[in-house]
Amino acid sequence: MHFFSINVSMAFADAVAAAKDALERQKFSILAEIDMHHILKKGLFVDVRPYLILSACSLPLAYRTIEADDVIGSMLLCDLVVQERKDGFVEISVVDPACTIGAINHVEMISIAEELRLLVQNVMQDIEAAAKISHAA
Q1: How far apart are CA 120 and CA 103, in angstroms?
Q2: What is the pLDDT of residue 1?
Q3: Can you tell me the mean pLDDT for 87-108?
Q4: Which residues of 120-131 are buried (b: 16+ CB within 10 A; e: fewer)?
Q5: How many other C-beta atoms can be found within 10 angstroms of the C-beta atom of residue 83?
Q6: Contacts (Cβ under 8 Å, ≥6 apart) of 105
Q7: Rounded distance between C-alpha atoms, residue 7 and residue 83, angstroms
Q8: 37, 41, 67, 99: least buried by Cβ within 10 Å?
Q9: How high does pLDDT run on average in the chain?
C-alpha cells in the first residue's frame, strides 16, 4: 500500500498543531483524535512514544462518494498519523486515497480518489512548509 510520509524537526505538539491547521486549510473536518499513546498506556499498561491518529474527512467528497456508492463508508476517512520517532523527528503519514478508494473500478470513485489525493498532498506540503518556518524561527 502506498502512503505519503514526511519527517519534521518539530516538537510533537507543534507537529500535531501544524497537521490540524493544514487539514483545516484544505477544508477537511477532523472527526476524531485518537491518542494511541494514552490508550495503550491505559489498556495495556505499556508506555509507547507519542502516537496520534487524526481521522479527517472532506465533507463534499464524502457526500459525493456516498452518493456514488453507499457501501463505501469504511474508505471515506483519511487517517493522518503523527508519531514521535526515536531520532527526535516527528513522522506524519497518510495512506494514498488512490490506493483505497481509487482501487474500486468505478469512474466516479476514481475521480474522487484523485481529488482527495491532491488535497492530501496539499496537506502534507502545508505541514512541511510550517515545519520549515518553525525551524527557521
Answers
A1: 17
A2: 58
A3: 83
A4: beebbebbbebb
A5: 19
A6: none
A7: 10
A8: 67
A9: 89
Contact status, residue 49 vs residue 83, Cβ threshold 8 Å:
yes
Amino acid occupying residue 69: D
Nearest of 50, 136, 126, 47 to residue 85 by alpha carbon: 50
- Burial tier of 2 (Cβ tally within 10 Å: 0-12, 13-18, 19+): exposed
Per-residue pLDDT, 27: 93
pLDDT for res 122: 94
Q: Is the pLDDT of residue 108 over 70?
A: yes
Domain residue spans in the chain? 3-136
Beta carbons within 10 angstroms of residue 85's beta carbon: 13
In CATH terms, the superfamily for domain 3-136 is: TT1751-like domain (3.30.310.70)
